[in-house]
């Protein structure tokens, strides 16, 4: 389906130069002189190579329709994620690289949303938040106020984040899966 370039959004799958691309980032740039254009960072679905492309906002691109399907995460086998269809119990395998920076947030039996184009996986979406334990947290520095300062901490999955000073090692917190930022203390 054709759409204007200024309607391209992250997560969409487009066809360009005879290849399929998943959109990673987009930005509309309005220079001081001349017409606006859209800068798009995208990844080739077959090779995994990234590229940047520019279109005028009035240009059209071919957007591919994706089918969304939920799967349960079973386990990781090397560079492959093994997912299970909750309805048919069939296993489905996808490359770990589809998750990108979100891979450390995978948890057993987590429900993942998989985007498919003609049966081929093109993107995976994790739940927006997960609960993890703090394994290391710097001590509170006397004189810092709770409202403005955060301290570094390490989560049980190895990811580093910034937490408020009252959070200690051993506590469970809720973090965002897209940027590993602190949301709140986990409710027991």
Automatic annotation (TrEMBL):
PROSITE patterns for the chain: EFP
GO cellular component, one term: cytosol
GO biological process: peptide biosynthetic process
Domain Translation elongation factor P/YeiP central, first and last residues per copy: 68-122
Signal peptide annotation: none
Superkingdom of the organism of origin: Bacteria
Domain Elongation factor P C-terminal: 130-185
Annotated protein name in UniProt: Elongation factor P
